[in-house]
Amino acid sequence: MHNFIWQYESENSDVYDKIYQNAKLLIKNTKSIFTLSNSKTVYEVLKRFFCENQNICVFVSESRPALEGRVLVKKLLTMGMKVTLLTDCQLAESIAECDVIFLGADKILRNGDVVNKTGSKNVGIIARHYGKPVFALSSTSKFSKQKKFKHTLHAQEEVWTYKHRNLKIENNYFEVVPRTLITKIITENV
Q: Does position 178 have pLDDT exceeding 70, yes or no?
């Protein structure tokens, strides 16, 4: 069992190294990066980038509803990275100040659309407005043969515990970011 875990971690580390090397070519003069939520791939690329550039600053959205952005912020701070945590409502101002945007990818649909945490589509739209590149970082294992993504609703109480017969609360964790809003999908192969 121990050898299996070591081999799995070693193979994943190699994938993250390759994704970073492919991303590095596109972000060499980058001083500030915006991201949201808590993507393992984004974290691994940021970690490698920080080893070579201690002056980068990362802006992270809190990422409603589950506030996963805070998880990523803690991990980045542990490394000594300069991080700004912001509310989801502050996306536009922070994206305007950043050089590039990193998104993770929970799934990549057959047409190249990226499924990622809710808020990612807003990030893509705002980035396009400000002319900022959006890179989706993913291993090729996330590519899917699916054409469409079906939303799954999660517990309403994560958003608000208030009840009223005229109140509907939606709590989607994921959404589709159209390929047209993604500058490039960066994998271990590309």
A: yes
The DSSP symbol for 172 reads: B
Residues linked to residue 184 through DSSP beta bridges, in sequence order: 135
Q: What SS3 string covers 109-149?
A: CCCCCEEEECCHHHHHHHHHHHCCCEEEECCHHHECCCCCC
CATH of the domain at 132: 3.40.50.10470
Instruction: Supply the range of the domain harboring residue 34.
Output: 2-186
Q: What digits encode the pLDDT tens for the residues 72-122?
A: 999 999 999 999 999 999 999 999 999 999 999 999 999 999 999 999 999
Preceding peptide of 178 cis, ω within 30°: no
pTM given for the model:
0.91
Report residue 118 CA to chain centroid gap.
10
Which residues are bridge partners to 33 per DSSP?
58, 100
